[in-house]
Design goal:
Blueprint lengths: L2 H19 L4 H8 L1 H4 L8 H6 L7 H4 L3 H10 L17 H13 L3
The protein binds heme C (HEC).
Length: 109
């Protein structure tokens, strides 16, 4: 087999493998990365949440935003590029962030 063909196949296999084996779990990621400020129930009812006036992530103000807006908020800190978020620079992949947005939709009230 030619080296280039082998490389292409290897990269393809890694891609398939990682998307199957590492399917991101939005709920688990939320627990790891977001609960400290947003609370286990995402209500924002934490000491940090009260101080910073964090909105209930289940509520209309947050849920009315598009998936693209929520993704940008989590990945890059939104239009204001808030460093509290910017999770793209803190080890979350696009798939992780998509999974978190899906999780946020699932807890909508
Ligand atoms: C260090 C504390 C902190 C962590 C950790 C954190 N957030 Fe936030 N989050 C905030 C604060 C504070 C706000 C309120 C808006 C602001 O001041 O940035 C907020 C607001 C939001 C909003 C609503 C934005 C709006 O329209 O008001 C979303 C959605 C959000 N966070 C998602 C997440 C997700 C998902 C995670 C985990 C991946 C996370 N946050 C982790 C502090 C945090």
């Amino acid at each position: 087999m030619k080296k280039a063909t082998f490389l292409v196949l290897a990269v393809f296999a890694m891609f398939v493998f990682s998307s199957v084996v590492m399917a991101a779990d939005g709920s688990a990621l939320f627990k790891q990365k977001c609960v400290a400020c947003h609370g286990a129930d995402a209500s924002g009812n934490t000491s940090m949440g009260q101080k910073m006036k964090i909105k209930d992530l289940r509520g209309a103000d947050v849920q009315k935003q598009t998936d693209a807006q929520l993704t940008d908020m989590i990945a890059n800190g939104g239009p204001a590029k808030k460093p509290t978020h910017s999770f793209k620079t803190k080890g979350l992949s696009d798939a992780d962030i998509t999974a978190i947005v899906t999780y946020l939709r699932s807890i909508k009230q």
